[in-house]
């Protein structure tokens, strides 16, 4: 087993429920259920979401109230604990620090690389700052450039860059469309199966 492995995991849909879907349900705005499973262009998706929030007069506080009620998926923390006992793990997410922090607490404070929201004094989300272009793929390539081998898992279009460019990559609880489009990628539904597959790749 190499000690130069880093496992890179997506957050939403893999370890915690989709934040925007939970907020869509809490706020009664069904359009906000659209995620990166539906829209591969993340900038387009986020700008569209911010427009909807503005139209409804909703800001960071309302979203954080929903996030406070979200728990990790059943078995996610145990899976993460076992994985972190075997190797280094980084969660690479297109979410934002302001959303992720309460969830990281519930997951035992794993390392997360994500983005940040720009928030006005009145709590309105005025914009967002992405850490870098194609943040998941860029992060995997940066880790590889300093001598690490990466193993990646995720569920959405924006995870495919890191999955396809790692020494081992897996789909987890993905959509039928993505599984059909990438039939060569092993796809799992249960944490134990994903853990076994990662352990074999280490």
Q: Give the name of the CATH superfamily of the domain at 5-16 and 73-115 and 131-201.
A: HAD superfamily/HAD-like
CA-atom Rg in angstroms: 17 Å
CATH architecture annotation of the domain at 5-16 and 73-115 and 131-201: 3-Layer(aba) Sandwich
- Beta percentage is 15-25%
The low-pLDDT segments are none
Number of helices: 9
What class, by secondary structure content?
A: alpha/beta
Residue-averaged pLDDT, rounded?
Answer: 95
Q: Could you name the CATH class of the domain at 5-16 and 73-115 and 131-201?
A: Alpha Beta
Strand order of the largest sheet: 4-3-2-1-5-6-7
CATH topology value of the domain at 5-16 and 73-115 and 131-201? Rossmann fold
| Shape category | globular
- Give the biggest beta sheet: 7 strands, mixed
Say how many strands there are.
Answer: 7
Q: In sequence order, what are the helices and strands, one letter per element?
A: EHHHHEHEEHEHEHEH
In angstroms, what separates the terminal alpha carbons? 6 Å
User: What is the helix content?
Assistant: 40-55%
Describe the structure in your own words.
Strands 4-3-2-1-5-6-7 form a 7-stranded mixed sheet, with helices on both faces. The protein is globular, with a radius of gyration of 17 Å. The mean pLDDT is 95. It is of the alpha/beta class. A hairpin with a 5-residue loop joins β3 (111-119) and β4. It has 9 helices and 7 strands, in the order βααααβαββαβαβαβα.
């Amino acid at each position: 087993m190499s000690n130069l492995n880093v496992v890179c995991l997506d957050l939403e849909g893999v370890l915690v429920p989709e934040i925007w879907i939970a907020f869509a349900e809490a706020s009664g705005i069904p359009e906000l259920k659209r995620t990166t499973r539906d829209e591969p262009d993340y900038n387009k998706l986020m700008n569209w979401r911010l427009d909807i929030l503005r139209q409804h007069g909703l800001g960071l506080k309302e979203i954080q109230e929903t996030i406070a009620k979200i728990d990790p998926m059943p078995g996610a923390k145990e899976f993460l604990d076992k994985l972190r006992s075997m190797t280094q793990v980084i969660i690479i997410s297109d979410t934002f620090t302001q959303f992720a922090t309460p969830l990281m607490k519930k997951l035992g404070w794993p390392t997360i690389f994500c983005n940040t929201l720009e928030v006005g004094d009145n709590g309105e989300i005025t914009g967002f700052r992405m850490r870098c272009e194609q943040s998941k793929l860029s992060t995997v390539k940066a880790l590889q450039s300093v001598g690490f081998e990466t193993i990646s898992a995720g569920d959405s279009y924006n995870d495919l860059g890191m999955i396809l460019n790692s020494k081992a990559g897996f789909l987890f609880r993905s959509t039928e469309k993505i599984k059909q489009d990438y039939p060569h990628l092993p796809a799992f539904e249960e944490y134990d199966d994903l853990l076994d597959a990662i352990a074999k790749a280490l």
